[in-house]
Design a protein that fits this description.
Blueprint lengths: L2 E7 L8 E7 L7 E11 L1 H8 L6 H11 L12 E9 L11 E5 L10 E5 L4 E3 L6 H20 L7 E5 L4 H12 L3 E6 L4 H6 L4 E4 L12 E6 L8 H7 L2 E9 L9 H12 L7 E6 L3 H9 L6 E5 L6 H5 L13
Parallel strand pairs: 8-9, 8-11, 9-10, 11-12, 13-14
Antiparallel strand pairs: 1-2, 3-4, 3-6, 3-14, 4-5, 5-7
The chain binds NADP nicotinamide-adenine-dinucleotide phosphate.
Length: about 325
């Protein structure tokens, strides 16, 4: 039996339920690929899953446990997002090849807090953007996919006035960039320490929710996109929702669970390669310090993304530097 390092979730609870273990390295079935994972992230969904969200309404908790596991996560290796390299393919796999640099959103399979995982060929895994390091690829995936989904839901178009409530987290930093790329005029709401960050991402106007209770006189929005979630609020949030133009809409990241697809990943990759979306990385932690990473993210004020590096020490510097342009498998060289 070949072993690999992984962080195993021993039950729902505080970050300390994540314990480093040596576990059996998975082997791909016919429709699966084996991925060597180089980077993952810790985002809100990761700590929600780990904690069992004790503060959520009972209906939400019951639904989540039915999906993820009643007493403990059914798949004890957590981690929703990964960037890595395909190292083995099952006999029936045609879409991906050994050596492909990939990005994946693993959904309920989870499994990214480990050195290796097997993913179905049909799962949300696709080629990573060219010229971007594994750390950056991992950092872009979660917020990028969610921002893309919810901006589409808000029907963002050139010239629209968009207010992003919560512009400095994983979803927020991606939403600022993607809304600007779509041609909107963006008003970004964040805390006192993040105004410069969100301006650097392209925000046209910035409002601090800790010192401002209403938008400027006369400001009207076509879309108010809440990227923070409904549990965090302020007087400013309510006032912004009242500043909608006729026909304008409010969309929240808490409105339903997006069904993300391979096509969404491909669109994200294209946007990154066109320079429309860049990684915002707050901190990096090695896998062995996953407990500290979860503690930090759970405070609720990370700037963009927290990356988990999963690689032998000698490889880590190389993962930080964007690799030279690579040729996608199957493409003419
Ligand atoms: N529907 C779904 O299936 C789904 C899936 C995943 C996530 N989500 C939702 O997406 C949300 C965001 O995830 P994330 O990973 O991007 O979170 P995150 O990176 O932790 O970002 C949270 C941001 O919220 C801001 N914030 C905290 N309290 C605030 C308040 N009272 N008013 C305004 N802003 C506040 C913080 O900004 P400052 O530091 O500047 O204060 C922080 O940057 C989650 O909370 C979750 O509800 C939904």
């Amino acid at each position: 039996m070949t072993l690999m390092k992984a962080a195993v979730c021993t039950g729902y609870g505080p970050p300390e339920v994540l314990v480093m273990r040596e576990v059996e390295k998975p082997r791909p079935r016919v429709h699966e690929v084996l991925v060597r994972i180089y980077a993952s992230t810790v985002n809100s969904s990761d700590w929600f899953i780990r904690s069992g969200i004790p503060s959520a309404p009972i209906v939400t908790r019951v639904m989540m446990r039915l999906m993820i596991g009643v007493c403990r996560p059914r798949h004890p290796i957590l981690g929703l997002v990964l960037a890595g390299e395909v190292v083995e393919v099952g006999a029936a796999v045609t879409r991906l090849h050994v050596g492909d640099r990939v990005v994946a959103f693993t959904k309920f399979h989870l499994g990214a807090y480990a050195e290796f995982t097997c993913l179905k060929d049909s799962s949300t895994v696709g080629l990573a953007p060219v010229g971007v390091s594994f750390d950056e690829v991992a950092a872009i995936a979660y917020g990028g996919l969610l921002a893309l989904h919810f901006l589409r839901k808000g029907d963002v178009k050139p010239g629209l006035q968009v207010l992003l409530y919560g512009a400095s987290g994983a979803v927020g930093t991606a939403a600022v960039q993607l809304a600007k790329h779509a041609g909107a005029e963006v008003t970004a709401v964040c805390g006192p320490h993040n105004a410069a960050l969100v301006r650097s991402l392209g925000a046209d106007h910035v409002l601090d929710y800790t010192t401002t209770s209403r938008p400027p006189d006369g400001a009207r929005y076509d879309l108010v996109l809440d990227t923070v979630g409904k549990r965090q609020t302020s007087a400013l949030r309510t006032a912004c929702e009242h500043a909608l133009r006729p026909g304008g809409r409010v969309v929240s990241v808490d409105d339903g669970t997006p069904q993300l697809s391979i096509a969404d990943l491909a669109e994200l990759t294209k946007l990154v390669e066109h320079g429309a979306l860049k990684a915002v990385i707050d901190r990096r932690y090695p896998l062995a310090q996953l407990v500290e990473a979860h503690r930090y993210v759970e405070l609720g004020h990370k700037k963009g993304n927290v990356v988990v590096t999963i690689a032998p020490d000698e490889l880590v510097p190389a993962l930080r530097a964007p690799p030279k342009a690579l040729v996608h498998s199957g493409a003419p060289s």
